[in-house]
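Homework-ish question, so no full write-ups if that breaks the rules, but can someone show me the predicted structure for this set?
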Amino acid sequence: MISKYAQYLPKRAKIVWVLDDLIGMLVLGLALLVLNLCLGAQWPSTIIMVLNIMLIVIIGLVIGHLLLIPYYYRFHRYALDDTAILIYKGFFLRKTEAIPLNRIQNVDTTQGPLLQFFHLKRLVIVTAAHSFSIAAVDEQVAQTLRERLILAARQASEVNNDD
Amino acid sequence: MMTKSAHQPVVAVIAEIIMTVREFFFVVLFLFFGHTRSMTSRLIVIVGLILLAILFGVLRWWFFTYDVTPHEITLKKGVFIRKYVHMPFERIQTITRTQPFYFQPFDVYRVSIETSGKKDDRLVFSALRLTQIEVIEQYRQQSQTKTTESKEVPKADHVYHIQTSELVVFALTSLGSLGIFGALATVISELSMHMPQDLVAKFDYWFSGQTFAGYIIILAVILIVSLVIAFARIYNRYYHFTLTRFGVHLAITQGLLTKKEIQLRLSRIQAVHYEQSLLRRWVNLATINVLLASSGRGDKEKQDKTTIIPVVSSSKAYHVLSDFLPSYRLITPKKAIGIDHAMFYELRYEVLMSLIYLTLPTVSYFGCAYVWHWPTIYSVIGIFILSVLIIYVMICAAVRMTDQRLVIEQETLTLQTSQWLTKHVYTIPRDKIQGAKATQSYFMIKSQAQHLRVIIRNGDEAKMIDMRYLPEAEAERIIRWITHVK
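A: Not a homework solution, just the prediction itself:
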C-alpha cells in the first residue's frame, strides 16, 4: 500500500529523461552513419552487419525507454515519514523500497548538465550495505531532504550504539 | 556556522597533473608508437600531453572545494559533472594519510577518509596541510567520543574447542572436492605444457589406448585424489579451531600450517547464519557462521562469512551458541509462511523462467542442427541434460518453499530459506537491517502476494535474503517493523 505522504517527482524530470534519450539516440544515430558511410568500405561486411544489428537493437531499446517515460513517471514516487524513506516504482512490476532513517549513512546529490539546466538534482541515499537513488528532485527539495535525512542519521549515531 | 569553501593547497595541482598523465598514458603510448611517426609529431604528442595534463590538473584543482563544519565535511568536485559529497563526522571509520616523495618538500599529505559504508563511499583529498588534517581529526574525535572502555585484559568467559572426530566429520561432509577437480585438471594441463614432448606423446598413446573400464578407473583415481586434497585442505584450515568469548569480544584461532587469528566485537556481528547442506541434513550436523561489517578490502577470505562453529549437531547448535552470543535470541522457526498455493506459484514461476531462458538457445540449436545435419545423438543427450537440470531446479524450488520460515520475536528477525538444497537460517537484530524491498508483479495482485527482500550487510557488500510469495499484509507488517527501529 502506497504511503499517504507519497509524492511525484517534479514534472520537469520527464523533459530531462526525454532529452537524455534523444541525445543518446543522436549519438547512436551518428555512430550508425559513421559505421556505414565511412567504415563500410574498409571493414569486413560480417563485422559491419553485426555492429549494425547491435546499434539498431540499442536504438530500439532507447526508443522503448522513451515511449515508456510517462509510465515510469506515473508510478515513480517517494515518501518520507518519521521513520523511513520509501520509494515506489512500476505498475506491472511493483517495487517498494524502504530504508529506515536510522540506517542512512549519508546522502549525496549529483547534477549533470541537463539536471543543472532544469534545477534538478539526483539524490543518492547510502546505507552501510547498499545505496539507492531518487532520479530527480527539485534543487530546493533535495536540500531539505538531505538536511532532514542527515539530521535523522546523526541522531542515530552509530558510535553510541556500538556496545 | 558554515565556513567558506576552501581549495586544497596549490601543491595539489601536482597530484592532479600526475593523475591526468596516468589516465592518458595508454592513449599517448598508442599515439606515440602507433604508427611510424616522425620526431616532430612525437614531440607534439608529448608537449600536447603535458599541456593537457596541466590544463586538467588546474581545472580539477579549481573545481575541487571543500567545507568543514563541526558536523560534516562537504566536497564539491568535477569539471563537467558537479558532484557533491557529504560526510558526517560520526560516520568516519578511518583517516589515512600518505605522503608520496614529491610531497615531502611541501609538508602536505594525501588524505583518504573512509566510512564503514560501501567501497566508493569515501573522500579523497589529493593534498592537505597538516594543520588542515588536524582540524578534521579533532572534529572526528569530538563527535565520536564515548565512555571509555576498561583496558584490563578480561578473562575468557567461554571456550569452544573443536574435537578431532568433529573436524574429520566436517571435512568429510564438505563438498569442496568438485572445485578441486577443476583445479587438478588445470594443473595437469599446465604440467603437460612443460613436460618433455616425447613423454606427453607416450602418455597420450597410453591414454588413448584405454578401454572404457580404464577411463572409469582413471576418473575414480582423480576423484579420490581430489577428495583427499579437499579433506587435507579443510583439516589444515580448521585444525585446533577454538572460539573464545571475552566479554563483548570473540576470538577465533585456527589452522595447522597457516595459523589465523580473528578478533571481533560482538556488536560488529550483523547476523548469525546457520548453514546446513543436504549432506549435513542427513547426518544432522550444521555450521554456524557470522556476517560481519568490515571493509574487507584486499582480503579475499574475509569477504565471505566467518565461521564460528565449523560443525555441531543441529539439535545442540543454538544451545552451544547461547554462551557465545548471549544477547541473541536464537530460535528455530517452526511455522511455514507463504500464501495458499505458494508452492504452486513458485513452481509455475520457475517453469516460465526456464522456458523464457531456454526457448531461444533451444530453437537456435535445432535450427542449426537441421541446416547442418548434426547427429541426432547430440540432441538426445542435450534434451536429457536439460530435463535433468529443469527437474533439479524444480526440486530446489520446492524445497525452498517448504523450508521458508519467518519469525519476529522482540528485537530479532529470524529468516529461514534454502538455496540449492542448502538450508540457511539468519538471525538478525532489528538494528542491523539496512533496508527492505517488496516486489509484486501484476500477476500477484489477485492472490495478494509479495516477495520480500531483507537487506543486511556482509563484509563490504549487501547481503539480500529473499522470502517468496508472502501474504501482502505480512510483508507490510515486516517492513513496518523494520523501519520502526531505534
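Now go work out the reasoning yourself. Hint: Chain A has a mean pLDDT of 82.
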